[in-house]
Amino acid sequence: MRMTVFYASPEQDADLLYGGGFRAPDPFLAWEIEGSFRAALSPLEIDRARRTSRFAEVLSLQSLGEESGAGRDPVGQVLWLARQAGATTLGLPEDFPGRMAFRLREEGDLPIEWLDRPVCSGRLRKTASEEKAIAEVNAVIAGAFARVRARLEAARVDGDWIRDEEGEILTSEELRRTIGRHCLDQGCTAEGTIVAAGDQACDPHERGHGPLPAHELIIIDIFPRSDSTAYYGDLTRTFLKGRARPEQRRMVEAVRRAQEIALAETRAGITGEAVHGAVVRSFERDGWETGTSPQGSYGFLHGTGHGLGLELHEEPRVSPRGGELGEGMVVTLEPGLYVRGIGGCRIEDVVSVRAEGVKKLSEVSREWEIP
After folding, report:
1. The domain made up of 2-123 is a member of CATH 3.50.50.60
2. Every domain of the chain and the residues it spans
3. Which residues pair with residue 31 across a beta bridge?
């Protein structure tokens, strides 16, 4: 019988959050046996956990230390708990604290099994309530995009730059503040939001900085976490204030076409690899190559999508090595193109996988050119 051990904060360990349904900022000891999660907590957290968590049992950390004879040593506590439970194996998540893992191996007499993430395989297929939580965050993002669009519509082009309603040059930082304030007002926290224009957007994870240029593509990627449910949303749209050049329009149309193909191909039973391959072929048919040059990488530089839930990037993957997609899995579909001198374009939506296709968990206009 395996006893799976966690020593982490649920804010950083989605499996522990999923299993216990309890949020706390500091690491603590928890364990799972045959699907039942338990935890040992200090007086700071124990009463709240007993009232609100899904743990089958919440032990007093002080009492556990006394009864086990291990005091405050979590390694001694784990080894005592394993003996009490009759465990024959200790399961440790792949990113378990290294020093503790070394001591468990050296001081204990049980074999250690390293576990890939996600440890809780149930996380892969979302329930109706989980889908609802993700869709609610995406609705908040849709509102943020409405704010962005309103600001761009109210702005004016002044030569090479965009000036806001007050006549100030609009910056990536200012649009990011607009997005962040909206998300906070709606009970979500947005960190790392991308507002990147022109060649800045050709590095897909560049957050963007400085004045926003007119007549250039602007990638805006918003991925907040709900303060109440802890689930993430994740949507990307591409805008342009001014007038687009023919090559920019060709790029945006190619990305839109590729995403439509991804939406049409995704269904239960297909692999993430196959969906990604269909997107790659779409870009190739439209004449967009992927490669490197002295100026850097260009083309389609990332996977088509990823799982979304209690983590921003989780299994499954819609990528060259993506496995089979199953009913109820929630994934992003976000093809993109990046070419210096033209700019970057990415369009991202969130879907739940169904036998017959997908159910969209997001709804935002894809209109992108704002005069």
Report:
1. no
2. 2-123, 125-370
3. 5, 38
Q: What is the DSSP letter of 242?
A: S
- State the CB neighbour count (10 A cutoff) for residue 116: 9
> Residue 229 carries which DSSP code?
T
CA-based nearest residue to 331, from 277, 284, 268: 268
Q: What is the CA radius of gyration of the chain?
A: 24
Give yes or no for a contact between 212 and 175, defined as CB atoms under 8 angstroms apart: yes
Cis status of the peptide bond prior to 246, with omega within 30 of 0: no
For the beta carbon of residue 111, count every other beta carbon within 10 angstroms.
10
- CA-nearest of 40, 345, 331, 353 to 202 is 345
Q: Is 56 helix (H, G, I), strand (E, B) or coil?
A: coil
Q: Is 335 helix (H, G, I), strand (E, B) or coil?
A: coil
Amino acid symbol at 334: E
Tell me how many helices (H) and strands (E) the chain has.
Answer: 9, 23
Do 118 and 315 meet the contact criterion of CB atoms below 8 Å apart? yes
Q: Could you say which of 3.40.50.1240, 3.90.230.10, 3.60.15.10, 3.40.50.720 is the CATH number of the domain covering 125-370? A: 3.90.230.10
Q: Which helix (H) or strand (E) holds 189?
A: strand 188-189
Contact 22, 39 (CB under 8 A): yes
Regarding pTM above 0.85, the answer is yes
Pick from 223, 216, 211, 209: nearest CA to 305: 223
Structure token pair of residue 213: 């240029």
pLDDT tens, N- to C-terminus, the chain (371 residues): 999 999 999 999 999 999 999 999 999 999 999 999 999 999 999 999 999 999 999 999 999 999 999 999 999 999 999 999 999 999 999 999 999 999 999 999 999 999 999 999 999 999 999 999 999 999 999 999 999 999 999 999 999 999 999 999 999 999 999 999 999 999 999 999 999 999 999 999 999 999 999 999 999 999 999 999 999 999 999 999 999 999 999 999 999 999 999 999 999 999 999 999 999 999 999 999 999 999 889 999 999 999 999 999 999 999 999 999 999 999 999 999 999 999 999 999 999 999 999 999 999 999 999 99
